[in-house]
Amino acid sequence: MDAGIVGLPNVGKSTLFNALTAAGALAANYPFATIEPNVGVVPIPDPRLATINRHIETEKIIPAALRLVDIAGIVRGASKGEGLGNKFLSHIREVDAILHVVRCFETAPGGDDVTHVEGSIDPIRDIETIETELILADLQTIENSLPKAERAARGKAPEDIVRLGLLKQLEPMLNEGTPARMLKPETKDQQRAFQRLGLLSAKRVLYVMNVDEEDPRGEGELAAKVQAHAEREGMESVAVCAKIEAELSELEGEEKQEMLEAMGFEEPALEKLARAAYRLLGLQSFYTAGPKEIRAWPIPIGCKGPQAAGTIHTDFARGFIRVEVYSIDDLDELGSEKAIKDAGRMRTEGKEYVMHDADVCNFLFNV
After folding, report:
1. What is this structure's pTM?
2. Closest of 89, 88, 114 to residue 103, by C-alpha
3. What value does the mean pLDDT of the chain take?
4. Above pLDDT 70, what percent of the chain?
5. Average pLDDT in the 115-122 region?
6. Secondary structure E strands in 127-221
7. Which tens digit of pLDDT belongs to each residue from 129-138?
8. I want to staple 164 with a disulfide (CB 3.0 to 4.6 A). Which of 34, 35, 132, 153 is the partner?
9. Enclosing H/E stretch for 269
10. DSSP letter assigned to residue 58
């Protein structure tokens, strides 16, 4: 699962990406500092791993992770090729969800003048600029697809009829400036067809409010506008000061803790951001635990036992027999796998078992 960081030039995307991936160097202060997308792997902070480790000794602990893509700044007219826009839009097409970084500060940290590509600070206008480019690109996709879809639907194949119906629903929505993600397909056939369209504005969005050092919690007027916009859409928002997070990413141990305490934070804002992105992608974690490693595995919410087993190795899915499973709460309460078994809380589940968040699993398979 991939998430793409998007936004106008000079809103702090690459600074945020570098902090998230602990890359260090900050981006240059001019549009298109990043031409090719940078890719990084971001661990998902997870206190449940430490809970497991309190009861099961191990050589290493491996958290779940997201693949993060830093996509160069999109400008007005990107859907028509402005600012190498088509290339950047194609990078967005390849990710599963969008982290939309929005500038919510007037003056750059340290008082430096960071030029806004639009000449003024207006986060809602900036959101609409990006959204418009995604919608216009989707309209081109739909207008190009409709004639072929109409011809295919004459054959009366159910999937072709469903596809045509979706395209006809989406075209007026997009023309009115409504993103495709606001359409809610009702049937499984519609959901599958909708997913196959690969529309840019269908992707779920986490709005990342890049705030200044005086407002690290995003309580100011600019951030409030973005929060309200996200709520209207049914999306999430997270306030982050990219400058502070970049500094925190370079610290460890006591120094990092001292800086967090000085700001009144329990954790870096980036940890909240990583977890919010994880939820945005519709993911949850199950765990495997043993003397060699304790590991969190990301899976889609609602997936079944064999699919989860396949994230470890394809042979596990192919030869799935059953899964022995218990909860982290059971482990924390009873203290060991043996005690869980003795208490009758170790469950054996088959191929139709729907995985729960925080399941600890031992898969049995035969190939």
Report:
1. 0.82
2. 114
3. 86
4. 87
5. 68
6. 204-211
7. 999 989 998 9
8. 153
9. helix 269-280
10. -
Model confidence pLDDT, tens digit, residues 235-282? 999 999 988 888 888 888 888 889 988 888 888 888 888 888 888 888
By three-state DSSP, how is residue 104 classified? Answer: strand
Question: Which are the contacts of 15, defined by CB distance < 8 A and separation ≥ 6?
Answer: 26, 27, 242, 243, 246
Distance, in Å, from the CA atom of 269 to the CA atom of 358, rounded to the nearest integer, reads: 23
CB 137 within 8 A of CB 91: no
Question: Which one, of 353, 327, 349, lies nearest residue 340 by Cα?
Answer: 327
Which residue type is seen at 178? T
- Sign, CA dihedral 85-87-88-94, equals positive
Q: Which two tokens stand for residue 149?
A: 């879809």
Q: How far does the chain reach from its first CA to its final CA, in angstroms? A: 27
Burial of 24 (0-12, 13-18, 19+ CB in 10 A): exposed
CA–chain centroid gap for 302, Å, is: 17
Q: What is the 3-state secondary structure (H, E, C) of 202-268?
A: HCEEEEEEEECCCCCCCCCHHHHHHHHHHHHHCCEEEEECHHHHHHHHCCCHHHHHHHHHHHCCCCC
**166-195 pLDDT, tens per residue?**
999 999 999 999 999 999 888 989 999 999
Alpha carbon distance 96, 2 (integer Å) = 5
Residue 27 is which amino acid? Answer: A
CA distance 174 to 136: 8
Q: Which two tokens stand for residue 57?
A: 């000794």
Q: CB–CB of 211/239 below 8 Å?
A: yes
Strand (E) or helix (H) holding 363 = strand 359-365
C-alpha to C-alpha distance for 224 and 227, rounded to whole angstroms: 5
Q: Is 209:217 a contact under the CB 8 Å cutoff?
A: no
Taking the C-alpha atoms of residue 265 and residue 253, their distance in angstroms, rounded to an integer, is 15
Counting every residue, how long is the chain? 367
Per-residue pLDDT for 88 more than 70?
A: no
DSSP 10-33: TSSHHHHHHHHTT--PPPPSSTTS
